[in-house]
Design goal:
Blueprint lengths: L1 H13 L6 E6 L19 H16 L3 E6 L16
Parallel strand pairs: 1-2
Length: 86
């Protein structure tokens, strides 16, 4: 759900400027063995996780997106933070 919201927020500003999009996120492997095929699912593979975020945001906004994935919440300011610089 967060990826959907983020895509809509970025899209709203993409027509007004040409923003650079950098996404820092955390990958947590939950080992729930669910097949991952929707954005809201827990992705079992870190590479799939980062690629799906990058592709969705890029296609939704027509912007270049860079995704950086950490393995620990402590590597980010807060596990639920959203920082927008406009």
């Amino acid at each position: 759900m967060v990826v959907l919201l983020l895509g809509e927020i970025i899209k709203a500003f993409s027509n007004q400027s040409n923003p650079r999009v950098y996404i820092n996120t955390v990958y947590v492997n939950k080992n729930n063995y669910q097949n991952s095929y929707l954005l809201k699912h827990d992705w079992q593979n870190e590479l799939d996780y980062s690629e799906i975020i990058e592709r969705y945001i890029s296609q939704r906004t027509a912007l270049s997106v860079q995704v950086s994935v950490s393995k620990n919440n402590k590597d980010l300011p807060h596990s639920r933070s959203l920082k927008l610089k406009i």
